Amino acid sequence: MSKLKEIYRQRQLHWMVLPGVAFMIVFNYIPIYGIIIAFKNYTVIDTISSAPWVGLENFRIILHDSFFWEAVGNTLAISMMKLGLGFAIPIILAIMIFEMRDGKLKKFIQTVSYIPHFFSWIVLGGMMISWLSTNGFINQVLMSLGMMDKGVNHLLDPDKYWWIAVLSDLWKEVGWGTILYLAGMSRIDPTFYEAARIDGATKLTQIRTITLPLLTPIISLNLILNVSGILGSNLDQTLVLMNSQNQNKSEVINSFVYKMGLTQGDFSYATAVGLGIAIISVILLVITDRVTRKLNNGNSVIL
After folding, report:
1. Which residue ranges does UniProt annotate as crossing the membrane (predicted)?
2. What superfamily does domain 64-296 belong to in CATH?
C-alpha cells in the first residue's frame, strides 16, 4: 500500500515517463516477434505466421558463407582498432582539458572537439571523399611535405581503408566521448588534490592516484558498452566510404545484413545474422561486466 501511495505522490513524473515507455514497447519490444523469421523461409508474399519453418537452416547457410566471414573479419579488425584508440584517447583528452587553467581556451577546445559529432556521416563522408581524392587536401599536404610525388585516391586502396575508417570515426567522436569523463572529474572533491599537493605529489601522480581511480565506474561502463558493441561497426560510415574497389576490406556485418535484407530481399537470412550477432553481443556484455567488477570492488556498474 505504501508503494502505491508513493507512485500516486509521484504521478506527474510517471505521466512524463509514460510516452517514452510506450515508444519503447511499440518500437523495441513488439518487433521482437519478427525474430521468428530467422527460423523460417520468409518472403514478401508471406506473412510472418504463414511462412514455412526451416529450423536452423538459415544459420547453417551462414556458417558456410565466405562473404559473411569476410564481413566478420573486417568488423572485428575495425572495431578492435577503434576500441584500442577510441577508448583511451577520450580519457586522455578529458584529463588534459580538465587540467587546463585558462577557462576561455578550455571552452574553445571543448567546442571545437564536439563539433564533428553533430555532423552526419553524409556530410563528413563527403568531406573525407573530397580530401582523400587524387587532388584532395590530404594529397596536397603530403606532396608539399615531399612525402608523395603524385596524388592518389586513398579510398580506392583497400589496404588503407581500416585506418581511414578508424581515424575518421575518432575525429568525429573523440570530443563527444570526453563529456562523461569531464562530468565525473567535476564532481571530484578539490580537497583531494590539495592534500596530494601538500604531500608533494606531482600532477601525474595526482592523476594516477586520484583522478583515474575515481573515474573507474565511468571507465568501466564505457568499456562494457564498447566491448558489447564490437560486432556493430558503424553502418552510416561504411555506406558512405565503401566503394567497389575497397569493398573486400570495408564490408562489415551491419552493411552485409543491410544488403542481404533490403537489397536482395533475403529477410530470413538477414534476421538470422542479426539474431546471432545480438546473442554474441549479450554474452560479451555479461563477460565484460564480470571482468570490470574487479575494478569496482566486486560491484557491477550495470547489473
Report:
1. 12-39, 76-98, 118-141, 161-183, 212-232, 267-287
2. MetI-like (1.10.3720.10)
Contact (CB, 8 A) for 72 and 252: no
- Asked if residue 126 lies in contact with residue 211, where contact means CB atoms within 8 angstroms, the answer is no
**Cβ contact 125:213 at 8 Å:** no
Helix axes 121-131, 137-144, angle to 10 degrees: 40
Say how far residue 229 (Cα) sits from the centre of its chain.
6
| SS3 state at 81 | helix
* Gap between the Cα atoms of 185 and 100, Å rounded: 13
Q: What is the pLDDT of residues 49-103, one digit of tens each?
A: 888 888 899 999 999 988 999 999 999 999 999 888 888 899 999 999 888 887 7
Question: How many CB atoms lie under 10 A from the CB of residue 7?
Answer: 11
Cβ distance 131 to 138 under 8 Å? Answer: yes
3-state DSSP call for residue 51? Answer: coil
In this structure, what is the dihedral angle of CA atoms 59, 60, 61, 64, given to the nearest 10 degrees? 120
- The Cα–Cα gap between 303 and 299 comes to 9
Residue in this structure with the C-alpha cell 510517471, named with its chain if needed: 14
pTM (global) more than 0.90: no
